Amino acid sequence: MTLDSTRPLFIRLLLLAFMVLVPPVGLLAHGALEEFAQGLVPEMDKKGETVGRDLTASIERAIGHGIPLTGLYGMDDFFSPVLSANPEIRYLSVTDHEGRVLFLNGAAREMLEPFYTVTDFEVESRRSHKSIIGDFIDLTQPLRGKVGVVGHLHVGIDQNYVRGRLLEIAVDIAVVTLVSLLVAVEILLFVVTFNVTGPMRVVGMVIDKTRRGDFSSACGAGADDEVGRFVHRFNAAIRYADDLFRRLEAYMDEVKSAHFDKSVVEQVGNIESRVRFLFRFSRSGKPEVINEHQATDIRLPLFLFVFAEEISRSFMPLYVRDLYAPIPGLSTEMVIALPIAVFMMFIAAVSPSAALAASRKGSRQVFLMGLFPATIGFFMSAVAYNVYDFIVWRAVTAIGYALVTMACQSYIAQVSHQQKRAQSLGVYVGAVLTASICGTGIGGVLAERMGYRATFIIAALLAVVAGLLIYRLMGSAQPRTEFQTPRKRQLLALLRNWRFSALVLFAAIPSKIALTGFFFFLVPLTLLQDVSTDLGDVARIMMLYPIAVVLLSPLAARLADQTGWKAGLVAIGGLIGGAGLLLPLYSSDLDTLTLAIVMLGVSHGLSASPQLAMIPDLCWTECRNMGQTNVLAFLRLAERVGSVIGPLLAAAFIPLYGYGGAIIALGVVVMSMSAVFALLSFAYGSGPHIEAELSE
């Protein structure tokens, strides 16, 4: 199963954009970082000297009141706020005139004192002295009393701080470049398919008809560019041929009505019959205009809309924590998890109605309908006062999200031929995953630089741009289909299919529990427990999940098609995801959590496509009775249960086990359910099971 028919074109455009965009950005960034490094080091020295002078003045003031240097108390408490406010300063120390360390905060005494006792700082004639001690720059300033210099104050600056800051800036530039690259490719893909490949495909269809003698069709009008002008001239040729036919037809009618020789009239009639047999023209005298609808028509608006939603992914629980207000009967963690659960619950509740509306009103109208609550939800989330109104606005956003995504899926299903339905749905999957990479990565950078609220406003603006694209580029007359709502009896029959129920309960639901409970909820909160991790780091680490899914999904789909081992891939994917969540049993550091995120991406990359591909085999009779689209829709609806349960379950574990323990507990749940499916998968086999079982 080829998931995305646009993939070859996407890859070629990606390579083109990479060659055009990345080298100049890399050169500019390299030069800018070098200049930044050259300017930052002297500024850090100046800052260290300034901090040293302020501390020296305070200490000398105490000495001036008759307190001996060795008699100062509370120096650790005096130094601590300075170190906390200045992360580039790693230690502060005070030594006597002979170099013995009297007070020290931030470093080990045995590392510094041997250097101090053998070094002549020559502070009698110099205001400060700069030394290199290992990885530190030591700025020394004299402490003067009534009898002269009584000791020294040392300010230790981390030499690696500049390197670390430069690395963070370089990674941010890389993230922004990656996002810019993917956005540029999405725009190029839309422009190429909408203005080049789409019109030329229609031209090919019309040429194929004319080759068979059918001149009854013309191409839809193109843009005012080279391809558009070619289409206009091609249509002019069709109209010219039609005009010649009309003139020939009029001439033959004139000959038949005016000529007295019956043999001539008979020959003209034979010629007319032959012409009508070989060539077909529009009876109305105006060729029918062909406009081909494609799945790629919807890709760019969908990409921008999902981008808008994913932009808050890396900081959503953190923003809720800032808005926290007590809700009676709920713990703090449960309140933080509530907006995520409510968002998922409303998507599940609204999706069936959204699918029905899309089939009746058309995808364009439903897309625009969904943009209104989504945009309002994004904007009001930015100005939310507390968690109460934030939950309301997330519910409103979820309504819009359900309408928009179901409108896109409905449009793709309607414009796709049955044999290319899987490829066309790959357009949806590709747009969502690419938007997830871009939104997660750039969202953390924007939130770190501009704040949470400004990032939500940017999301609202992106949603508006998506709406403008739909309004301007997609015609109001869209293809519609009759939507058959499954009857209760059919749904019960589907649930009685034990293979389908097992797939939902022990594969689809635990997958969503891991996604929303671990990735959406626990990861941002857990990562920021480490004081050395900032919001940009959270976003960059979380990007690894969608990247892993994007890289593995096509490989898993191809492997599933070639081997037929769909249930096995779903089982292995579930076990890998559960194992990743159990990694904190062995270590709770940043690398372990990062590996857990990558393993979750591998899990979903392996299992997502085979899970969908299993449905025609597992539910052969149900797909025939209900329609495959309805069966897949019910699968998606059922797995939303896991999306709602995930954050609530994780929040319930935190007070009991802490953040690391909550990940492990969630991993036990996911691993247990996945293990059950792995055991059941051996009984799946292959083929239309229900049909075979009913015939026994």
Task: Note down, in words, how this protein is organized.
The chain has 696 residues and is of the alpha+beta class. It has four domains: 33-164, PAS domain (Beta-Lactamase, 2-Layer Sandwich), CATH 3.30.450.20; 216-286; 294-482, MFS general substrate transporter like domains (Growth Hormone, Chain: A), CATH 1.20.1250.20; 484-696, Growth Hormone, Chain: A, CATH 1.20.1250. Helix content is 73%, strand content 6%. It is built from 23 helices and seven strands. The strands form two sheets. Strands 2-1-5-4-3 form a five-stranded antiparallel beta sheet, sandwiched between helices. The protein has a two-stranded parallel ribbon with strand order 6-7. Residues 687-696 have low confidence and may be disordered.
Helix content: over 70%
**CATH topology-level name of the largest domain:** Growth Hormone, Chain: A
Low-confidence stretches: 687-696
Structural class by secondary-structure content:
alpha+beta
CATH class identity of the largest domain? Mainly Alpha
What is the H-and-E element order? HHEEHEEEHEHHEHHHHHHHHHHHHHHHHH
The CATH superfamily label of the largest domain reads MFS general substrate transporter like domains
Treating each run of at least 4 consecutive H or I residues as one helix, how many helices?
23
Report strand order across the widest sheet.
2-1-5-4-3
Straight-line distance between termini: 31 Å
Rg over C-alpha atoms, rounded to the nearest angstrom: 34 Å
CATH architecture of the largest domain: Up-down Bundle
Number of domains: 4
Strand content: 5-15%
Biggest sheet statistics: 5 strands, antiparallel
Mean pLDDT, as a whole number?
Answer: 81
Shape annotation: elongated
Number of strands: 7
